[in-house]
Amino acid sequence: KAGVTQTPRYLIKTRGQQVTLSCSPISGHRSVSWYQQTPGQGLQFLFEYFSETQRNKGNFPGRFSGRQFSNSRSEMNVSTLELGDSALYLCASSVAPTETQYFGPGTRLLVL
Amino acid sequence: AQSVTQLGSHVSVSEGALVLLRCNYSSSVPPYLFWYVQYPNQGLQLLLKYTTGATLVKGINGFEAEFKKSETSFHLTKPSAHMSDAAEYFCAVTLSGSARQLTFGSGTQLTVLP
């Protein structure tokens, strides 16, 4: 089975712009979670989607949003980018009953 | 709420020596516990997990971890380090039944010396 894929792998944006990141889960996995990884804050949970519905949400501002499509692919969007949004954004997919999360390679976002 | 503490942000061992990475957790309900490894410029790879049952869990690449409820610990060990084990290791916890939202420790960078 193919693993979790994320596109693009690298992205450079400027402050004030918006960005959309994409995640394709492992085939058959219906849950997709997003995490932000930074040197200062470490790995932090952003949100989780299941069957096109947001099920859980971390403590991030409303500039961070996401959605999931009927084929379980997910996108996350960050609007009005700030320098502090520079990070590695990781997507993970899982399936019942164990719900173990399998991670993609991440998208590295640099905000200038 | 749950939390994870990884003692030692950097650990160095000699090739062939025992690897011991420490993880303590806090959880108000029985937790699920995980160890992930991250190589440079890559995502996270699952090493092993504890959900229920046997408290000694064996994972990939010769790693194992033991869930000790009385000590609220889930330390990761490997009898003999290889150069290829050099990476960053993350302990994570989640509430049983809600394994989709992981809380991670701050990570331990493992260096293996020749």
Task: Give an overview of the whole structure.
- The complex is a heterodimer of chains A (112) and B (114).
- Chain A is mainly β and 112 residues long.
- In chain A, 0% of the residues lie in helices and 54% in strands.
- In chain A, strands 2, 4, 5, 6, 9, 10 and 11 form a seven-stranded mixed beta sheet that branches. A four-stranded antiparallel beta sheet of chain A has the order 1-3-8-7, with no helix packed on it.
- In chain A, a hairpin with a 3-residue loop joins strand 4 and strand 5.
- Chain A starts with a strand and ends with a strand.
- In chain A, 36% of the residues are buried.
- The mean pLDDT of chain A is 94.
- By secondary structure, chain B is mainly β.
- In chain B, 0% of the residues lie in helices and 56% in strands.
- Chain B has no helices and eleven strands.
- In chain B, the strands form two sheets. In chain B, strands 2, 4, 5, 9, 10 and 11 form a six-stranded mixed beta sheet that branches. Chain B has a five-stranded antiparallel beta sheet with strand order 1-3-8-7-6, with no helix packed on it.
- Chain B is globular and about 40 Å long.
- Chain B starts with a strand and ends with a strand.
- The model of chain B has no long low-confidence stretch (mean pLDDT 92).
Please tell me what the overall shape of chain A is: globular
Oligomerization state: heterodimer
Q: How many strands in all of chain A? A: 11
Our measurement of the CA-to-CA distance between the termini of chain A, rounded to an integer number of angstroms, reads: 37 Å
Largest interface: A-B, 27 and 22 residues
Largest sheet features of chain A: 7 strands, mixed
Class by helix and strand content of chain B?
A: mainly beta
Strand content of chain B: over 45%
Mean pLDDT of chain A: 94
Question: Helix coverage percent of residues of chain B?
Answer: under 10%
Average pLDDT score of chain B: 92
Largest sheet of chain B: 6 strands, mixed
